[in-house]
Amino acid sequence: MMELQFKRHRRLRQSANMRALVRETVLHKEDFIYPLFIVEGDNIKNEVSSMPGVFQLSMDRLKEEMDEIVKLGLKSVILFGVPVEKDAEGTGAYHNHGIVQQATRFIKGQYPDIVVVADTCLCEYTDHGHCGVIEGNKVLNDPSLDLLAKTAVSQAEAGADIIAPSNMMDGFVAAIRRGLDEAGFIDVPIMSYAVKYSSSFYGPFRDAADSTPQFGDRKTYQMDPANRLEALREAQSDMEEGADFLIVKPALSYLDIIRDVRNEFNAPVVAYNVSGEYSMVKAAALNGWIDEKAVVMEKLTSMKRAGADLIITYFAKDAARWLSE
């Protein structure tokens, strides 16, 4: 009888310790950036109805949240502001007393080692819900750049460690880099939402940030989900303009794009595990349909395996707990 010739790959899967020994992709708490939604007012801790376990927090409730974050071993947060008053130009985004600026000063004063990433956009602050200045029903690109640069400088003045512009205007990285440099913040890096798709997975975030457009959609500035090569063009432009990190958003349905960006560029790549991806898992878990821990950790591992160095995720606190078990 002729002897069969084949490889014995199972040799490296025989025990938990053996599998751990050869594991190629490992998650660490330092990989995660936890989003926080800061609202104006007092004694507010409102659970976002479409995002179980995620809360809108007023400044006086921020300390208890930050204490938990530090205790869990997380190292970085990204801040989103939810103001009471909004206007056509989103002036609350760049006021010195804006809600993100207040939260940044508090966190850096009380928890100086935490890395604060400031989301730099106008949509939470405009009464029309778009990410720039409008004229009629058109979002104007170039006039929006000045306001975005002002917002970035204001956030840096408040102590933000990283500026994360999410607006997808053409030239936004160049405008913000120039604004930061001219204001003396040459060492503040830019974490660009370089590849941001016009995705259906953002719905719950818009509940949390109160940022739903009041007319139309964002398809003239966010990318068509069908496009791949466009992502590389966008990322290339941002790198040339001075970006220090490249975000791909969303993550789970765009793992191929994360890998493309990782292969093409040497900058740190950030996957944004967005609200819809979070809410679907939470809903299935609450119905008992899935093992939440197993699914979340598999999903986060897939993002890192695809090439992400960092992951912005609403599961950061849960994942940190599970990694400590």
UniProtKB/TrEMBL annotation:
Cofactor(s) listed in the protein's UniProt record: Zn(2+)
Enzyme class: lyase
Active site: 196 (schiff-base intermediate with substrate), 249 (schiff-base intermediate with substrate)
InterPro entries to which the protein is assigned, alphabetical: ALAD, ALAD_AS, Aldolase_TIM
CDD domains: ALAD_PBGS
GO BP annotations listed: protoporphyrinogen IX biosynthetic process
Keyword Metal-binding: yes
Sequence positions that bind Zn(2+): 121, 123, 131
Positions that bind Mg(2+): 234
Entry EC no(s): 4.2.1.24
MF GO annotations: porphobilinogen synthase activity; zinc ion binding
Pathway the protein takes part in: Porphyrin-containing compound metabolism; protoporphyrin-IX biosynthesis; coproporphyrinogen-III from 5-aminolevulinate: step 1/4
UniProt binding sites for 5-aminolevulinate 1: 206, 218
Alphabetic keyword roster: Heme biosynthesis, Lyase, Magnesium, Metal-binding, Porphyrin biosynthesis, Zinc
Chemical reaction(s) catalysed: 2 5-aminolevulinate = porphobilinogen + 2 H2O + H(+)
GO cellular component: cytosol
Binding-site positions, 5-aminolevulinate 2: 275, 314
Signal sequence, renumbered to the chain: none
Oligomer and partners: Homooctamer.
Entry's family note: Belongs to the ALAD family.
Function in brief: Catalyzes an early step in the biosynthesis of tetrapyrroles. Binds two molecules of 5-aminolevulinate per subunit, each at a distinct site, and catalyzes their condensation to form porphobilinogen.
Record protein name field: Delta-aminolevulinic acid dehydratase
Encoding gene, per UniProt annotation: hemB
